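hey can u check if this looks right to u? its 252 residues, i copy pasted from the old doc so theres a chance i mangled smth
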Amino acid sequence: MLRALLVCGLLAGACGGLLATGFAELVGEPALEDAIAFEEARSPAAPETELVARGLQRSVGLLTAAGVYGLALGGLFALAFAVVYGRVGRAGPARTALWLAAIAFVVVFLVPFVKYPANPPAVGGANTIAARTDPYFAMLAISVLAAVAAARVHAVLARHRSSSSATGLALVSYVVVVVAAGLALPSAGGLPPRFPAATLWDFREASVGTQLVLWTALGLVFAATAPRVMAGQPIRPWRSSGGGEAAAATRD
């Protein structure tokens, strides 16, 4: 069953990656182009040969990166689903998948993003990448570990308290940990002087939207396929040996 769930996760991740690529191209690329133009105007230099052409970056490069990222997330999502299903709450597989996708969006992306919001790649010096990346991954690790600990707190409290009370206390414990970590970690690096605020806002808005599209699609596709796996049915009903059942499932 785990192998079939992994197939569901990879399929969901691939769909999410494709949709996120389209969203990033439509919404994110204009802000990125503006940021590159600002950087070039701020520090003009002799023309350099591009290792990868800009057109290739925003087409094949963006599609490949989003696809690989989506597949990786899909596989990890399937493993996480296998761990939490039936152990945290009593929801069915579809509802568990949707809740897990929503929680993962907050824990894996939104919380680290609030502390270290995305900047356009053309902004900032290359020598500051490590200084900006290391704290971000530290915040990401703390957020994930705090979420795991909160799930354990919920499991312990649920034995002695109501489900709503256990959920509230577990949520409070997670918030306390990530807020404390956010205050303790160093702040994000500044932007160049006179950087257009509208460009920065558009880029960060597109970053949040891209991740939201990715996790929403991943959760919806996994929620549509995982129940069939849990019921011992094929993922694609039109390949089922039972013609009548397959036709009914296809009509549904």
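The chain has seven helices and no strands.
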